[in-house]
Amino acid sequence: MTDKFCRTGSDTKEAIQKYTKLVYSIALSHTPTKADADDAFQETFLAYHRSELRWNDEEHRKAWLIRTAVNMSRRICSGLKRRAAIETGEDRTEFSFENVEENEIMTAIKGLSEKYRTAVMLFYFEEMSVREIAAALKTGESTVRSRLSRARKALRKALDGSGGGSLFEDETCPENADT
Fold first, then answer.
1. Same structural domain for residues 25 and 87?
2. Mean pLDDT over the full length of the chain
3. Residue 63: which CATH number?
4. What span, in angstroms and rounded, lies between the C-alpha atoms of 26 and 172?
5. I need a labelling partner for 65 at 20 to 30 A (CA). Which of 26, 39, 42, 105 fits?
6. Cα-to-chain-centroid distance, residue 149
């Protein structure tokens, strides 16, 4: 008889309460619509609940949720491409903020490639350190710093002339940030 780990509802509920903002912001930044982000969010926590994995510490659990949220968002987007010709009747409207500048910034962020978008979301929106991002993405700290630098450059270019470019002009370099 094998000893299988069975996650409890209270464990899943605690993870949802602790990581809702993190997982949902990743889903929003990696999918084209709010409905798709909702699906990615739900699929991420469903996978968590069904998972038989045990984590060494909280950072490992957080890293697993980040990777799973990115992967679920990818899966949803690839499914959207396959069924693009089929009209489903779903609400396919883009998510938008009330503030025009925030919409411009999010549009610019969504225009980044996935590796840059993920680094930006985790660093600026989730306030994770370069070291934490590197651990979560299973990459080097110098790679994270490089991605952030390139992302800022691309965001400056995308936002130049739209009124939002100055937000990134005086950013402190992540090389000097606490890691």
1. yes
2. 79
3. 1.10.1740
4. 23
5. 105
6. 18
| Confidence at residue 149, expressed as pLDDT on a 0 to 100 scale | 94
Q: Regarding predicted confidence, which is higher, 79 or 105?
A: 105
How many domains, the chain?
A: 2
Question: For residues 98 and 177, what is the distance between their CA atoms, to the nearest angstrom?
Answer: 31
**What is the span of the domain harbouring residue 166?**
98-179
Same domain, 81 and 107: no
Measure CA of the first residue to CA of the last residue in the chain; give whole Å: 45
Whether the pLDDT of residue 41 is over 90: the answer is: yes
Measured CA to CA, the distance from residue 27 to residue 151 in angstroms comes to 18
Does residue 8 share a domain with residue 87? yes
Do residues 119 and 133 share a domain? Answer: yes
Q: Is the pTM of this model over 0.70?
A: no
Provide the phi-psi class of 87: left if phi over 0, else alpha when psi is between -120 and 50, else beta.
beta
Comparing 43 with 79, the larger pLDDT belongs to: 43
Among 95, 120, 142, give the residue marking a domain's end.
95
Q: Are 4 and 52 in contact (CB under 8 A)?
A: yes
- Rounded average pLDDT over 146-171: 71
Token representation of residue 75: 């899966």
CA distance 149 to 147: 5
Highest mean pLDDT: which range of 16-30, 51-65, 99-113: 16-30
Question: d(Cα 80, Cα 155) in Å, to the nearest integer?
Answer: 26
